[in-house]
Design a protein that fits this description.
single chain, 277 residues, alpha+beta, 4-stranded antiparallel sheet, 6 helices, elongated
């Protein structure tokens, strides 16, 4: 599933491609993509609206429209946007389509069928259930060393589980949580509340570091307008990861083998020498 850096890159690509365009018509082909509206209402709510900008909140993509509505999109496992020309065929798993005045269209393709869309009044956006409980953005002033440490101190959960909770740390997923913990030298099974202030501050910084690093690396890629899905999680940069997916390979710091164990139904990768409990 795409994490904050991947979603940020998708948002930047889409914003450059289609901000300022008017949606002449919108079609919903799979009802479960936007389960709270009918296909007819989906079309009415979005047709003839201009896209003012495209932004991000956590792992959600936000289409800010000039009709005082916002389209919230979550890509989930395999959702992706494609900007296609008039003669380009739709991909096999097209679930929604947005037509522009020049004949081009934005298509939402989702092979795994887990993506979600929701149209809300912009004035009520922050209260939408998808966004209302999210933790502060990791690059915002609200996400501070003090607030992070206080949140850790209130949790008896293993650190990995804490970091994946979007109400605690916004935007992290399995990959960047693993990378941040490795750089901070902390074991994924460490109880969150037992972290010292010094280790908490270190982890706070490595969370920001790995996210910035991933965004900067992805920004250097050439954007394909027919595939806005960009990012490390797609497998293009597996050789770059320090611990994630590197079971039995030597640690880049101490050369001891990276280990993996199951934690809350997911794989946790760590170096037993560099990441002590």
């Amino acid at each position: 599933m795409p994490e904050l850096p991947e979603v940020e890159l998708v948002v930047r690509a889409l914003d450059a491609l289609i901000s300022g365009r008017q949606i002449m018509s919108a079609e919903l082909f799979r009802q479960r993509l936007a389960p709270e509206v009918t296909a007819a209402d989906f079309a009415i709510m979005l047709s003839y609206a201009s896209i003012r900008k495209i932004a991000r909140r956590g792992k959600h993509i936000l289409f800010d429209l000039d009709n005082d509505r916002t389209l919230i999109v979550h890509l989930r496992m395999s959702g992706r946007f494609l900007h296609l020309g008039p003669d380009d065929p739709n991909p096999k798993f097209t679930h929604a389509e947005f037509h522009f005045s020049d004949g081009s269209r934005l298509v939402f393709d989702d092979q795994r069928h887990f993506g979600l869309m929701k149209v809300v009044d912009t004035a009520a956006l922050t209260g939408a259930k998808e966004l209302s409980k999210l933790a502060p953005e990791p690059f915002s002033d609200e996400f501070s060393p003090e607030s992070f440490f206080a949140s850790l101190r209130s949790s008896r959960r293993p650190l990995k589980e804490f970091l994946l909770d979007q109400t605690k740390v916004c935007g992290l997923g399995n990959i960047y949580a693993a990378e941040a913990m490795f750089l901070a030298g902390i074991h994924p099974a460490k109880t969150a509340s037992l972290l010292s202030r010094k280790r908490s501050d270190r982890l706070f910084q490595t969370i920001r570091d790995v996210l910035i690093e991933a965004i900067e690396a992805g920004s250097a890629l050439n954007t394909d307008p027919q595939n806005s899905q960009i990012g490390y999680y797609s497998g293009e940069y597996e050789s770059y990861w320090r611990v994630y997916g590197r079971e039995d390979l030597p640690c880049l710091v101490c050369e001891n083998p990276i280990m993996r164990f199951r934690q809350a139904g997911r794989s946790s990768f760590y170096c037993p020498s560099c990441q002590k409990k």
